[in-house]
């Protein structure tokens, strides 16, 4: 007899299945409507119909007997058809999490029967559930929404909104069919084509919101010039006013989205637009010199994969996947990269390269400095290994004084693609690391701040964060967390790292930009901040490592990390890259956080201040955020070097920095102790 299963995304049924071994029928809900199609036979080819939810229903359903057989004795791990699983537990039920993949399909069992596959994604949770077992799955979290009406999706049309300079930007407007108007509206401003993936936001339309998806200036159907960051403050403000004054909008507008879509939110909010009432900021991009493309005054090479994908009017991700990145990143001057690598000039790269300092060009898109300070209730989500993590740091700084209940923060053990992997390069995490409630949290946030619903979301913990090593979620009333103290660890002789400052000394190294150290990433993956094993890399002669003795007790660090360096060089400029690493009993050194600063910008990014040969200067480098427990038997390490190939273009050690056709060797020195107390400042939990 065929057994029924239903596919849900964010608590909404999308498709129904009836399965007996490989004999499967499926009935899918109309993308815009509410009705389901008539059941029809399913084959493996139909799995592509469900690519948006990151599940392969046909493959999984045909394997369910194999899953049940493999899990019958509750082994620690098993594999089925190349899918690898390890045992866990969820609410007292046998639970297996899929290892080694992005967007895993976890398997949940009850009384020997497979009752659901659970797929966590960055901004939603997708579930394939055996009918009758919904209460045992994350679908139960949506019980308060079960009796609420769902609406069809009606596309009102594509509208060309005039900006203040006359350029028109294209936006698609979707309304909840049959809902009484006006309704609150949600705005998404994207450089990745408004018509590609818009159905991701239909869950909000089905729950009674208008949704507006706009191509930012110069992208897809919008007019004007594509120049990353430059136009987003004014364009975002104009767009909010257009949306908020439409007859179908009740005057309350929320914004959502991740990465550049997070950046466009903060830009739109900067001028204090009266229609913006709530935001959900996910892995937001930050401002130019804090985050990119000029992180610490160093031009990002890791971001060039993204740059290549943005060289066409429509998003072209295939341009990121290349085998010749090492050769491409050696091209000088950098203005020639487009022509030599792609066979075409790239005007926006040329314009960015023409502004090496934080001048009016970059300040125009600096949402942090342009902010009026108006409170807009915001939910901020990011991860310890988000390569736009400094953008979230800026958002946390900007909103630090928000009134209670208007800011919520969720920080997990995730990369830029977010809530999507248990295994992240050199680190692996247990079941609780990924969450199935984030989409519900988003829904409640908008329902409260745009509709006025009293659902308690504003009373939940202001900060939720995951501590690695302890491998558990915690809560706090603020960020930085209140139960921790700033604790310095000082650099010392022979690479020591102690809480007490020692006598003055120095250690030098030679940095050759023709042979820089490597920031260990896969360029084509487009993830620049992953935790990786630096054990061999640290053996290079152009690294200095400062390491604590073996820790006798756990040491939990939560918060921003700052490294103060006292340095000198015989070059007029050079870069300093620092990494915080966890060294285990076997000597394996895994990078947890990092930061970089060009020495010429040690006192600010508005103008360079070049080094004098041999003169000691102070640099303060703020790294990415972290919450990590260094376990007993482990050691804490700080490494210092001057090259980070694949992260930034090597500094030539000349006044032309990263964009010189000539380079020189620099002899760099890190001073410690006495009057030059180089150290790392950690926020250590009590």
UniProtKB/TrEMBL annotation:
Q: Which UniProt keywords apply?
A: Hydrolase
Q: Report the GO molecular function annotations.
A: dipeptidyl-peptidase activity
What is the top-level taxon of the source organism? Bacteria
Domain (Xaa-Pro dipeptidyl-peptidase C-terminal) spans 443-681
Task: Report the InterPro entries cross-referenced here.
Answer: AB_hydrolase_fold, CocE/Ser_esterase, Galactose-bd-like_sf, Xaa-Pro-like_dom, Xaa-Pro_dipept_C
Q: Name one Pfam family in it.
A: PepX_C
Designated name of the protein:
CocE/NonD family hydrolase
């Amino acid at each position: 007899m065929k057994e029924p299963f239903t596919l849900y995304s964010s608590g909404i049924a999308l498709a129904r299945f009836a399965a007996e071994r490989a004999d499967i029928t499926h009935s899918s809900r109309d993308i815009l409507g509410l009705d389901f199609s008539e059941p029809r036979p399913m084959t493996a080819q139909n799995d592509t119909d469900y690519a948006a939810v990151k599940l392969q229903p046909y493959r999984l359903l045909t394997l369910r007997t194999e899953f049940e057989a493999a899990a019958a004795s509750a082994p620690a791990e098993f594999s089925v058809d190349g899918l690898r699983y390890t045992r866990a537990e969820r609410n007292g039920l046998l639970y297996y999490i899929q290892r080694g993949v992005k967007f895993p399909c976890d398997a949940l069992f009850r009384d020997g029967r497979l009752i659901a596959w659970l797929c966590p994604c960055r901004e939603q949770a997708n579930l394939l559930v055996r009918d009758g077992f919904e209460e045992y799955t994350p679908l139960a979290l949506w019980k308060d929404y079960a009796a609420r009406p769902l609406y069809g999706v009606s596309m009102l049309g594509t509208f060309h909104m005039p900006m203040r300079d006359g350029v028109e930007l294209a936006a698609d407007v979707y309304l909840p069919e049959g809902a009484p108007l006006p309704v609150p509206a949600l705005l998404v401003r994207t450089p990745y084509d408004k018509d590609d993936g818009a159905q991701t936001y239909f869950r909000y339309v089905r729950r009674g919101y208008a949704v507006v998806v706009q191509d930012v200036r110069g992208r897809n159907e919008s007019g004007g010039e594509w120049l990353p960051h430059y136009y987003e403050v004014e364009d975002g403000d104009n767009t909010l006013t257009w949306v908020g004054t439409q007859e179908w909008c009740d005057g309350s507008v929320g914004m959502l989205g991740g990465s550049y879509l997070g950046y466009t939110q903060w830009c739109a909010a900067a001028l204090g637009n009266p229609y913006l009432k709530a935001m959900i900021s996910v892995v937001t991009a930050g401002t130019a010199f804090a985050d990119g493309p000029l992180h610490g005054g160093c031009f990002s090479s890791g971001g060039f994969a993204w740059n290549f994908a943005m060289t066409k009017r429509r998003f072209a991700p295939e341009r990121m996947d290349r085998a010749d990145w090492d050769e491409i990143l050696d091209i000088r001057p950098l203005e020639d990269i487009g022509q030599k690598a792609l066979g075409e000039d790239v005007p926006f790269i040329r314009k960015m390269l023409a502004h090496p300092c934080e001048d009016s060009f970059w300040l125009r898109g600096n949402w942090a400095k342009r902010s009026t300070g108006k409170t807009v209730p915001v939910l901020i989500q990011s991860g310890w290994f988000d390569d736009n993590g400094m953008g979230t740091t800026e958002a946390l700084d900007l909103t630090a004084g928000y009134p209670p209940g208007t800011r919520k923060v969720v920080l997990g053990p995730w990369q830029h693609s977010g809530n999507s992997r248990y295994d992240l390069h050199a680190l692996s995490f247990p079941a609780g690391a990924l969450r199935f409630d984030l989409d519900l949290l988003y829904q409640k946030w908008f329902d409260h701040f745009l509709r006025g619903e009293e659902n308690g979301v504003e009373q939940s913990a202001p900060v939720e964060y995951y501590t690695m090593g302890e491998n558990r979620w915690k809560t706090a009333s603020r960020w930085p967390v209140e139960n921790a103290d700033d604790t310095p660890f000082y650099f010392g002789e022979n690479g020591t790292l102690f809480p007490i400052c020692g006598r003055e000394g120095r250690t030098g190294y030679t940095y050759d930009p023709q042979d820089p150290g490597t920031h260990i990433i896969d360029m084509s993956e487009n993830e620049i901040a992953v935790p990786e094993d630096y054990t061999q890399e640290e053996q290079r002669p152009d690294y200095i490592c400062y390491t604590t003795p073996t820790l006798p007790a756990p040491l939990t660090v939560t918060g921003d990390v700052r490294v103060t360096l006292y340095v000198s060089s015989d070059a007029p400029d050079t870069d300093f890259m620092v990494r915080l690493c966890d060294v285990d009993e076997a000597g394996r050194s895994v990078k947890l956080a990092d930061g970089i600063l060009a020495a010429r910008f040690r006192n600010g990014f508005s103008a360079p201040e070049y080094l004098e040969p041999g003169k000691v200067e102070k640099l303060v480098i703020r790294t990415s955020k972290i919450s990590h427990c260094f376990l007993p038997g482990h050691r804490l390490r700080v490494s210092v070097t001057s090259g980070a190939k694949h992260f930034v273009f090597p500094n030539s050690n000349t006044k032309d920095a990263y964009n010189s056709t000539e380079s020189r060797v620099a002899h760099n020195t890190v001073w410690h102790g006495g009057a030059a107390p180089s150290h790392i400042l950690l926020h250590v939990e009590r």
